[in-house]
């Protein structure tokens, strides 16, 4: 079975490439390298000992997608491609709506043309907005606080509508919580272009001296230690969830939304303590004012993933911190770029 990964050279995409290859699937990647580098795929091949067919292509480009599908004839798609910085989406909403929605529409039209009827979508826990209940089940009310989140919400609706209209289509919407860590080999990991938005890359930069100190935004939330609480999941566990989703999609039609999280909430200070314990490296930090839009706490109810996909997490918070640091130590400048 051949799987197309759009945005497959990115953080989650590259780790999913490894898990799919090791599970015996053939993999094709389409990536425009806006927020990734081709070096990631070379390292994927080194880890898995198998080749990855790759195309430098924008998924919004209908002609490029047509050429790829004609040449490769994928059996299923995992759709990672999309702009993903929450702050940037607030500053440039039109760019986010144009890119993320257009890429999905172009992809679905091309899949329809070539008879490809299975898609796993890289969605996000941001579709839950401010949760009314914790842990958050898939049946929770949806709502978003940024254009980025709304693009995920809208794409989910597009996919649900298409699945309702096309009875042969199989859609799995994977709602990620907070992916961190890196492959245990230290060869691939999170390699954000520009200034990182997420907590773990900033922890790594503070620990390595690239940043003077980590800013902890808000110490007065209604949480056990006053700092924001999130559901952090090891990227390898997350990648394995995509393999389970592909297996499910191969045998079912319709549309299902599934949380991928551990079901445990960790605070910012929990992350710092675990990092220092698992690596022996201190993280200098200062408390700062709250950031606009930050939600005090959100973590997943992962029971549907276990029941529907047979998936559960295996790695601990210490594993996440240790593997993230190992990648940073081996790749202080990421994939060879300053």
Record keyword descriptors for this entry:
about 350 residues; alpha/beta; Rossmann fold; seven-stranded parallel beta sheet; 11 helices; about 20% strand; globular
Protein architecture, described:
By secondary structure, the chain is of the alpha/beta class. Helices cover 41% and strands 18% of the residues. It has eleven helices and 14 strands. Helix 3 runs parallel beside helix 5. The chain is globular and about 55 Å long. The chain starts with a strand and ends in an 8-residue tail after the last helix.
Task: Give a summary of the structure in a few sentences.
The protein has 338 residues and is α/β, with parallel strands linked by helices. The protein has helices at 11-22, 39-48, 62-72, 86-91, 93-113, 147-165, 199-208, 235-251, 268-279, 303-309, 317-330; strands at 2-6, 26-31, 53-56, 76-79, 118-124, 170-176, 178-180, 214-217, 229-230, 232-234, 254-260, 266-267, 285-288, 297-298. 41% of the residues lie in helices and 18% in strands.
Helix content: 40-55%
Which strands sit side by side, in order, in the main sheet? 3-2-1-4-5-6-11
Fourth-level CATH superfamily of one domain: NAD(P)-binding Rossmann-like Domain
CATH class of one domain: Alpha Beta
Briefly note the structural class of the backbone: alpha/beta
- Here the CATH topology of one domain equals Rossmann fold
- The H/E string reads EHEHEHEHHEHEEHEEEHEEHEEHH
On the 0 to 100 scale, the average pLDDT is: 96
How would the global form be characterised? globular
* CATH architecture group name of one domain: 3-Layer(aba) Sandwich
What's the number of extended β-strand segments?
14
Task: State the major sheet.
Answer: 7 strands, parallel
Strand content: 15-25%
What Rg is obtained from the alpha carbons, in whole angstroms? 19 Å
The N- and C-terminal alpha carbons lie at a distance of 38 Å
Which regions are unreliable across 5 or more consecutive residues at pLDDT < 50?
Answer: none
């Amino acid at each position: 079975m051949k799987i197309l990964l759009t945005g497959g050279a990115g953080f989650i995409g590259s780790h999913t490439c490894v898990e799919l290859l090791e599970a015996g699937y053939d993999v094709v990647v389409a990536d425009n390298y806006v927020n990734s580098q081709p070096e990631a795929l070379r390292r994927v091949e080194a880890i898995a000992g198998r080749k990855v067919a790759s195309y430098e292509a924008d998924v919004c480009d209908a002609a490029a997608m047509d050429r790829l599908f004609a040449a490769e004839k994928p059996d299923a798609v995992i759709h990672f491609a999309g702009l993903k910085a929450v702050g940037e989406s607030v500053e440039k909403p039109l760019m986010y709506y144009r890119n993320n929605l257009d890429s999905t529409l172009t992809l679905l039209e091309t899949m329809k043309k070539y008879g490809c009827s299975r898609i796993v979508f890289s969605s996000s826990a941001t579709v839950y907005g401010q949760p009314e209940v914790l842990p958050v089940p898939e049946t929770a009310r949806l709502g978003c606080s940024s254009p980025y989140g709304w693009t995920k919400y809208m794409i989910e609706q597009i996919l649900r509508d298409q699945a309702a209209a096309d009875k042969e289509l199989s859609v799995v919407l994977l709602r990620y919580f907070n992916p961190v860590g890196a492959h245990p080999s230290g060869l691939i990991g999170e390699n954000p272009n520009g200034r990182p938005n997420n907590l773990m890359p900033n922890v790594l930069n503070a620990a390595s001296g690239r940043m003077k100190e980590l800013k902890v935004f808000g110490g007065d939330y209604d949480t056990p230690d006053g700092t924001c609480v999130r559901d952090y999941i090891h990227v390898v566990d997350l990648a394995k969830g995509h393999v389970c989703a592909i297996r499910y999609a191969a045998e079912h039609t319709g549309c299902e939304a599934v949380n991928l999280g551990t079901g445990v909430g960790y605070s910012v200070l929990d992350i710092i303590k675990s990092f220092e314990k698992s690596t022996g490296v201190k993280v200098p930090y200062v408390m700062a004012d709250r950031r606009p839009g930050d939600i005090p706490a959100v973590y997943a109810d992962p029971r549907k993933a276990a029941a529907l996909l047979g998936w559960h997490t295996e790695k601990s918070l210490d594993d996440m911190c240790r593997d993230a640091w190992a990648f940073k130590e081996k790749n202080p400048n990421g994939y060879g770029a300053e």
